[in-house]
Amino acid sequence: MDLALPLWFEIGSLVLLVLILAADLLLILKRPHIPSTKESTLWVAFYIVLALVFAGLMWLFAGGEYAGQFVAGWLTEYSLSIDNLFVFVLIMSQFAVPRRYQQEVLMVGIIIALVLRGIFIMLGAAIIEQFSWVFYLFGAFLVWTAIRQAFPSGDHDDQARQEGVVVRTLRRFIDISDHYDGSKIRTVFEGKKMWTPMIIVFISIGVTDLLFAIDSIPAIFGITRSPFIVFTANIFALMGLRQLYFLLGDLLDRLRYLHYGIAFILAFIGVKLVFHAMHVNELPFLNGGEPIEWAPEISTWVSLGVIIVAMTVATVASLIASARERRAVITDAPAPTIAETRDTQGGGSPEARG
């Protein structure tokens, strides 16, 4: 039988997570650098293990249902956060952010995301508590988002260009220098105080986080109605995202089918939300305002299985397609001429040999 989460566990968990994030931020501020692959791998592994330990503690103190909801919510938010990275890469390249300072930019972006998602979570929980019919809206919104994700009219480059409208508007009202001054957002140029391009990067990251929060919060409320689980799943999904950015690097371009996996997850959760809305139906024009009993109730464990399978299939299919493409390029490459072969083998011309 599942129990309620103890209050001390919820408070203690949030305090500990805030301390970990603060320590992570201090490390970046004291030693800005480009993390190595080994360093990034260790940090990503640490945060994944930490999330699984947290799920284990939830199982111990509150039962398997709570733990399952957390893991399903965490994996959903993690997959959506990886989609964030595509836009982050474009923003960094568009504004030529020095790689040495990209860690700080990402950390600020994560903090902005946590604040925005915290606000959305509180609003979402309050609305759901008062109006159960909102699940119909959340479900329909997620299905529409899934269709848009699977069959986009544009791509991630379009999103980055749309943010450029905000940037151009910003330049009309404030003075922004053409060059960075480390990681500072304010600098002095020719005796005049100006903003650096870093302020534009932070605003662009903030706009992106806002757009993704609008998609991700309804998705996780389709898995759990616990604001604590929703918020901690978001924290764990965003922790390690900075290191994942450096770890994946060019691999992001190879995950070409990732958006299909994410679209499937969003559509599945959207349908699940509609079914749940039917179970708690209060709309007078549907079934006389009575619950619709024939609608299936999808369990947390089924949701978890669907999420894992969808992301695994999308990732494996992407890597297989990328590997085939690389082999095709190698096969189609022209064979080296006799002269090129001699040069490679150290032959070359008589002058070179002599």
Q: What does the model show?
A:
The protein is mainly α. The protein has a domain at 7-250. Helices cover 73% and strands 2% of the residues. The protein has helices at residues 7-30, 37-62, 64-94, 102-130, 134-150, 156-173, 197-221, 227-238, 241-248, 251-254, 258-279, 300-332, 338-344, 350-353; strands at residues 186-189, 192-195. The chain has a two-stranded antiparallel ribbon. The termini are far apart.
Keywords:
354 residues; mainly alpha; two-stranded antiparallel ribbon; 14 helices; 73% helix; globular; disordered C terminus
* Helical residue percent band: over 70%
What radius of gyration results from the CA coordinates?
24 Å
H/I helix tally: 14
Q: What is the percentage of strand-forming residues?
A: under 5%
Number of strands: 2
Overall geometry comes to: globular
Order of helices and strands: HHHHHHEEHHHHHHHH
Q: What oligomeric state best describes the polypeptide chains here?
A: single chain
Report the major sheet: 2 strands, antiparallel
Kindly report the average pLDDT value: 76
With strands numbered from the N-terminus, the spatial order across the biggest sheet is 1-2
Low-confidence stretches: 347-354
| Structural class determined from secondary elements | mainly alpha
The termini sit apart by 86 Å
